[in-house]
Amino acid sequence: MNKFLNKWFRRFHRWLVLPFVTLLLTVIFMRGTPLGDTAQRIQAVFMIIMAISGTYLWLLPYWTKWKRKGAQVKS
Description:
Layout: H1 2-29, H2 34-74
Helix pairs in contact: 1-2
């Protein structure tokens, strides 16, 4: 189950990058317009989601090593 979740988390994070970059460009080029303001609000939500999923993916190798060490000590 854990490998399955990690695989889908990576895919989710990768696919979020595309709309995030599009929104970033929209915010930059449409600054001061109603479309730019709306895009900026949506981008803030995307940024939070990207930060959470990116942090999980960054910490995953360390977490796995920590779990492996704990299993070796118990054996």
